[in-house]
Amino acid sequence: MTPEKSIFSKIIDREIPSEIVYEDEKCIVINDINPKARIHLLVIPKKPIATLFDLAPEDKDLMGHMMLLLPQLAQSQGLDGFKTQIHTGESGGQEVFHIHIHLLGN
Ligand code: 5GP
């Protein structure tokens, strides 16, 4: 049985609309539907990894790629500082089980 697609995979595959801020071959960046700050972006890998617990050694480049994108995205949004969050597991407050980095700034 194929595992159910996450809401973020559906956004990546354009099955669900979203405000796309940036996209490349490895990831997509969207505006959070329920922003907790003036700027609230979600940096999402196209590879559907459920949580940080599920990362494999081969994901090192992908995660580094997303980390390097954060300051670029912040600057493109006019931010000179920002917060990042990664929620992991239900007890870590994670709601969507497809890794994503929150970028928040005011
Ligand atoms: P987390 O899993 O990190 O706790 O939170 C998931 C985040 O995804 C939340 O901030 C929520 O507002 C956002 N989110 C959930 N569903 C959608 C959606 O369909 N579109 C967008 N743009 N954001 C979503």
TrEMBL record:
Cleaved signal peptide residues: none
Q: Which InterPro entries match?
A: Histidine_triad_HIT, HIT-like, HIT-like_sf
Q: Name one GO molecular function term.
A: hydrolase activity
One matching Pfam family: DcpS_C
Query: Where does the HIT domain start and stop, copy by copy?
Result: 7-106
Q: What is its EC number?
A: 3.9.1.-
The active site annotation covers H100
* PANTHER family for the chain: HISTIDINE TRIAD HIT PROTEIN
Protein name as annotated: Purine nucleoside phosphoramidase
Q: Which organism is it from?
A: Hydrogenovibrio crunogenus
